[in-house]
Amino acid sequence: MIKLGVLISGSGTNLQAIIDRIADGTLDASIELVVSSRADAYGLLRAQAAGIQTLTMDKSFYDEDNTADRIIASEMRYRNVDYILMAGYMRMVHEPLLAAFENRVVNIHPALLPSFKGAHGIQDAYDYGVKVTGVTVHFADNRYDCGPIIAQRALAVQEGWTVDELEAEIHKIEHVLYPEVVGLLAADRVRVRENGTVEILPE
Ligand code: GRF
User: Fold this and answer.
1) What is the phi/psi pair of residue 124, to 5°?
2) What percent of the chain has pLDDT over 70?
3) Checking CA distances to 122, which of 12, 110, 163, 199 falls within 20 to 30 Å?
4) For the domain bounded by 2-200, which CATH number is listed?
């Protein structure tokens, strides 16, 4: 059983997908703490409904150099967390957290990295007119949407889709792919090679 910490800023549907897979026995994991960078994040209510401890980091914690990351790192270490999942966390993670959890901070991005980094990956891919986009799960580093890629799933963009339709399809994939990756981590099947690529070990 692996212990998870989850970082959110918003609706928390990816958090919910992981809560659900733990509850139905698909994932051998527990969520020890949910940290939100926003007090009004709906994901906090999802965590509380599942009986998970929460911590809200006031905006001021992010003003000073790395204070938020230092507090998050110590809260996660105190709870013996194995992996930290960023799930719609609209903040960058920095050295205090990355050093304490080397190759143990994971992010999900709603596009096929390295394309369409940033906060508007779905809209940007849609506006560009790509015919294939998708979802990426990767280890985080101190740059936005960079770091070793663990898993990707592609989605063919259908003629006539609105951006909302594309978004709905992307989220469906996210809610399957993120729990799958957590399953790989729980089974200790994810290894980062020296060159920064990721090997998925056979079962
Ligand atoms: C997801 O699309 C994720 O890929 C991106 O932010 C969104 C978070 O959605 N990083 P939710 O808060 O999990 O519903």
Assistant:
1) -65, -40
2) 100
3) 199
4) 3.40.50.170
